[in-house]
Amino acid sequence: MPHCIIEYSNEIEKYIKPQRMIDAVYRGASKSELFEDEDIKTRSLGYENYQAGSVKKEFVHVTVKILTGRNITQKRKLSELVMSQLEKIDFQSTLLTVDIVEMEKDTYFRVKK
Question: Shortest CA distance to 28 belongs to which of 75, 73, 82?
């Protein structure tokens, strides 16, 4: 835990490799010290079709899904650390957002094989 999902506009791939965003988000989650490094799962998904308001502007949105039980201070710190790592990347006129989403412990199941 957590699941870090990076959604972004495909145009970004012209100058930033997706792995660079994955590494940045992973570092931010790791620096929070809320999780064991081996439990941080990070993945990315590029979009060709999207719109933000009345213009088609590049974006990166990170959703960090965590199990319930963290307080607001911990969640804010996690969000700030992920954002601070993203801000180190030289994006061009890109909207950056991070959202922390809680998953219910009673309904989340995981199987390790």
Answer: 82
Nearest to 4 by CA among 80, 58, 47, 61: 61
Give CA–CA dist 20/14, Å, rounded: 13
Write the pLDDT tens digit of every residue in 9-51.
999 999 999 999 999 999 999 999 999 999 999 999 999 998 8
CA distance linking residue 86 with residue 64, whole number of Å? 14
Interior/surface letters 23-33, b for 16+ CB within 10 angstroms, e for the rest = ebbbbbbbebe
> 């180190």: which residue's tokens?
88
56-77 residues labelled b (16+ CB within 10 A) or e (exposed) = eebbbbbebbbeeebeeeebeb
Residue closest to 100 by CA, chosen among 77, 91, 89: 77
Question: Model's pTM, two decimal places?
Answer: 0.92
